């Protein structure tokens, strides 16, 4: 009887242990199963090397299995001086010294997420849940290493955004080297506000104001220099226009003078040619007149000139007009008229 009761209780326990219950994962969660003890050696004990995908439901016996979930969405750890904004309701910014010895407070945001495939490793070696992972692992390392990295900057370099960004990138790389093997992916290390000792802050602000005035004066000087250069360029442009205009007028006058010269040259050549032709004609005529028949031609011309004209000769002699009869025949003979008339004699007037 006792043996039968024991077997009955054992069967009831086994049926209760093997009854499956649902285990779910959220939209951004992965699940990890652990086996606490096996039934007749059918299951390996410990963390199952498998990540169950998000948004699903799985059924496992409750007594021999445990179920854990990890959120894979982007997580932020905000460490700031403002209690109402950070992860903690107290001052939580990073406090350290710059390389030149000044105290500084820096607000930092660490953005990270889990590698879903590494969830079993996280559970077995790092943390049992997201909160433990965030507070015990990521936060502890994120508050330590960035202090060392940003502490390499000089005080003045914190005012240069590019230098802060370089150190942020360096901090991200260092954190990834440490947290990456654990299954954590560091996405960003962002810096926000920073603050120095109040007295030192006033001195820095005064220096910044002075530097701004210097830069303003430099800008004004540069603007004045650029304005001078512009006016100089405008004056040079105007002079160049005047020179170009004068060159144009000179070239125009030169072209017109050259054209006039060529015209006058051609006209002179034409006059010269005409004169040479006329001279040549005169020479030929003189040559003809000096030859045989030349005298005859002269006489003919004289005759033509006297033809139809009434001639009255009043000889003057002995201090007064001589009205004595003149022998016109002799006169005409002397002048060659007689030979031209062909009469041989001329009538007396």
Structure write-up:
The termini are far apart. Among the domains are: 2-71, no CATH class; 75-196, Tetrahydropterin Synthase, Chain A (2-Layer Sandwich); 294-341, no CATH class. The longest helix is centred in the C-terminal third of the chain and has 93 residues, at 198-290. The protein has 349 residues and is of the alpha+beta class. The relative contact order is 0.06. The strands form four sheets. Strands 6, 7, 8 and 9 form a four-stranded antiparallel beta sheet that branches. Strands 3-2-5 form a three-stranded antiparallel beta sheet. A two-stranded antiparallel sheet has the order 1-4. It contains eight helices and eleven strands. The protein has helices at residues 2-18, 119-125, 130-150, 161-179, 198-290, 294-306, 328-335, 337-341, and strands at residues 21-24, 29-35, 46-47, 57-60, 65-71, 75-79, 94-97, 103-114, 184-196, 316-317, 320-321.
Mean pLDDT: 82
Helix and strand sequence: HEEEEEEEEHHHEHHEEHH
Q: What's the CATH architecture of the domain at 75-196? A: 2-Layer Sandwich
Number of strands: 11
The shape, in one word, is: rod-shaped
Q: Please tally the helical runs, counting DSSP H or I stretches of 4 or more residues.
A: 8
Span of the ends, CA to CA: 213 Å
Using only C-alpha atoms, the radius of gyration works out to 66 Å
Percentage of residues assigned to helices? 40-55%
Structural class: alpha+beta
CATH class of the domain at 75-196: Alpha Beta
Major sheet summary line: 4 strands, antiparallel
> What would the CATH topology of the domain at 75-196 be?
Tetrahydropterin Synthase, Chain A
CATH superfamily of the domain at 75-196: Band 7 domain
What percent strand?
A: 15-25%
Low-pLDDT segments: 343-349
């Amino acid at each position: 009887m006792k043996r039968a009761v024991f077997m009955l209780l054992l069967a009831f326990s086994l049926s209760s242990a093997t009854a499956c219950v649902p285990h779910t994962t959220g939209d951004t969660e992965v699940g990890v199963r652990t086996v606490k003890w096996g039934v007749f050696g059918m299951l390996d004990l410990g963390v199952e090397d498998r990540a169950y995908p998000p948004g699903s439901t799985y059924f496992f016996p409750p007594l021999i299995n445990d179920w854990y979930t990890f959120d894979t969405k982007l997580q932020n750890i905000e460490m700031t001086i403002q209690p109402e904004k950070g992860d903690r309701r107290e001052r939580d910014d990073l406090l350290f010294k710059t390389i030149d010895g000044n105290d500084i407070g820096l607000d930092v945001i660490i953005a990270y997420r889990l590698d879903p495939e590494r969830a079993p490793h996280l559970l077995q070696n790092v943390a049992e849940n997201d909160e433990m992972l965030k507070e015990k692992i990521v936060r502890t390392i994120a508050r330590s290493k960035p202090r060392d990295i940003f502490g390499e900057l000089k005080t003045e370099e914190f005012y240069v955004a590019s230098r802060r960004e370089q150190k942020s990138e360096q901090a991200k790389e260092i954190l990834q080297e440490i947290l990456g093997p654990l299954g954590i992916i560091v996405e960003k290390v962002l810096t926000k506000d920073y603050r120095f000792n109040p007295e030192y802050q006033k001195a820095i602000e005064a220096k910044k104001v002075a530097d701004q005035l210097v830069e303003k004066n430099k800008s004004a000087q540069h603007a004045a220099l650029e304005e001078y250069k512009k006016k100089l360029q405008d004056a040079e442009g105007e002079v160049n226009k005047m020179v170009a205009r004068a060159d144009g007028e000179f070239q125009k006058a030169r072209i017109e003078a050259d054209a006039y010269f060529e015209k006058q040259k051609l006209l002179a050549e034409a006059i010269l040619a005409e004169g040479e032709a006329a001279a040549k004609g005169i020479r030929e005529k003189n040559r003809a007149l000096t030859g045989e028949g030349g005298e005859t031609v002269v006489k003919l011309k004289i005759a033509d000139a006297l033809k139809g004209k009434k001639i009255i000769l009043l000889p003057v002699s002995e201090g007064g007009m001589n009205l004595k009869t003149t022998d016109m025949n002799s006169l005409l003979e002397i002048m060659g008229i007689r030979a031209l008339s062909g009469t041989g004699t001329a009538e007396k007037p």
